[in-house]
Amino acid sequence: MALLAEYRCKATPARRVIEVYDADAYFGDDDAMAVARTQVVAGNGYHLYLLSLQPDIDVEVAIRVWDTPPAPPADAEGRVSVGIESETGILVVNQLTYGPAGEMTLPRPGVYEGHAWWEGRQATADYHELSLDHPADDGFEEHLNRAWNTCPVTERYVLDVAYVREPEPVDEDDL
């Protein structure tokens, strides 16, 4: 298995959610978001939702395109099968409150399938909760900024995918 492309960025999971979607897929999906609440990562074919346990500490999102995706690490906190269709060949990593954190140009437009896995999710949530245990005085905001910028663990979501086919043709009647 060969790694064909890789993209990484940091994103703030405002409202505890990070989205990954095709650059032309503007509309969200409440049903897929609801599934993400139970399985951490879920999608509808054009959107993937990554659900954090905390809303303030930056997480790392990695998108890796392989000729054949490797198995998730044995020590990953969790894993789930994923698929995403990208008509444009560009995936956007979006922060719900703050807007796009970055974008990746795929090797070619199409449908990509593989799996998502994550690590550091629970440890980051525990650290976040601990950081809130501080007197609410004049230095509270400074304390939180310092704590959230120096989190000792990285919450990471990795999408390991491979190209499987061309995108579905666009039906002009649907436009």
What gyration radius follows from the Cα positions, in whole Å? Answer: 17 Å
Give start-end ranges of low-pLDDT stretches. Answer: none
Q: Treating each run of at least 4 consecutive H or I residues as one helix, how many helices? A: 3
Helix content: 10-25%
Cross-sheet strand order for the largest sheet = 1-5-10-9-6
> What characteristic shape results from the CA principal axes?
globular
Order of helices and strands: EEHEEEEEEEHHE
Number of strands: 10
Oligomer: single chain
Question: How would you describe this protein?
Answer:
- By secondary structure, the chain is an alpha+beta fold.
- Helix content is 18%, strand content 42%.
- The chain contains three helices and ten strands, in the order ββαβββββββααβ.
- It has a five-stranded mixed sheet, with no helix packed on it. It has a five-stranded antiparallel sheet with strand order 3-4-2-7-8, covered by helices on one side.
- Strand 7 (90-95) and strand 8 form a beta hairpin.
- It starts with a strand and ends in a 10-residue tail after the last strand.
